[in-house]
Amino acid sequence: MKCKLLISILFIVLFIGLISADTAFYIKKGEVYDIKISCENNGARCRTGTCNITINYPNLTSMVNDGGMTNLNNGYFNYTLNENQTIVNGEYFTRVECNESGLNDTSNFIYEVNPTGIRPSDQKT
Questions:
Q1: Which of 85, 49, 83, 86 is nearest to 69 (CA)?
Q2: How far, CA to CA in Å, does 41 sit from each of 56, 62, 118?
Q3: Which residue, 7, 63, 83, 102, shows the most beta carbons closer than 10 Å to its own?
Q4: What would be the CATH architecture of the domain defined by 23-114?
C-alpha cells in the first residue's frame, strides 16, 4: 500500500511541471518555422558547443530525437521545422541539450501548433 502511494506521489510531482508549464510560442499549422533559442550551459550561453533538440508530438511520440541545431555564433541555435512537422495541432514537448567543454545542460519548453499560429483566447472561440 505504501509503495502505491509513493509511486502515485512521485508521478504527480513529475508531471505537475508539464501541466502548469506556459506555452513558449505558437506556430501556424502547415508552415515552415525556425526555432531559435538561446542554448545555455550552467546559466551561460553556449558559444562554441553543440545543441541538440528533441521534440515530441502532442501524443508524446517522438518527432525529432537529438536533432543537431545550427549554431548562429551568438549563443543562439536554430532548428528549422518543415511544413510536415507542423501539421498536427496541439502542444509539442521539447528539450534542448547544450554540450560545451564536456559539460551538459538541458532546458525544456512547450510550443503549440494551431490553425492561426496565435494564442487561443476566449474572445476568439
A1: 49
A2: 22, 24, 30
A3: 63
A4: Sandwich (2.60)
Bridging pattern class, strands 90-100 and 50-56? antiparallel
The span from the CA of 36 to the CA of 24, in Å, is 12
pLDDT tens sequence across 24-47:
899 999 999 999 998 877 777 777
Residue 111 grid cell? 510550443
Q: What is the DSSP letter of 85?
A: G
In Å, what is the CA distance from 84 to each residue of 5, 9, 122? 42, 38, 28
Q: The pTM is what?
A: 0.75
* CA dihedral sign, ordered 86, 39, 61, 121: negative
